[in-house]
Amino acid sequence: MPKFVIEREIPGLGASSPEELRAISQKSRAVLNELSPHVQWIQSYVTDDKMYCVYVADDAELVREHARRGGFPADRVSEVRTTVDVTSAE
Q1: Are strands 76-79 and 39-46 parallel, antiparallel or unpaired?
Q2: How many CA atoms lie within 13 A of 79 on its CB side?
Q3: Which domains does the chain have, with CATH numbers?
Q4: pLDDT tens readout for residues 46-80
Q5: pLDDT tens-digit series, residues 78-90
Q6: C-beta separation of 60 from 3 below 8 A
Q7: Quick check: helix, strand or coil at residue 32?
């Protein structure tokens, strides 16, 4: 399945409590269960005002559908073309 990075603009997100982040995660997981196995959440990164999520999915439209059903923004959905890390320099 293709991998996607989703950028979600959520002002003040970085100041969220663990309980608030857990509630967001639980809502996301409930929607993912409805769309399974066609969309899978890998990991998310929280910054001050954004969340960057990594998903694998059949296509970008399923990622957007997850956002619609969950009430989450999906300001940018980008397909990962390749990965680069420290071992890429060897």
Answers
A1: unpaired
A2: 9
A3: 3-83 (3.30.70.3090)
A4: 999 999 999 999 999 999 999 999 999 999 999 99
A5: 999 999 999 998 8
A6: no
A7: helix
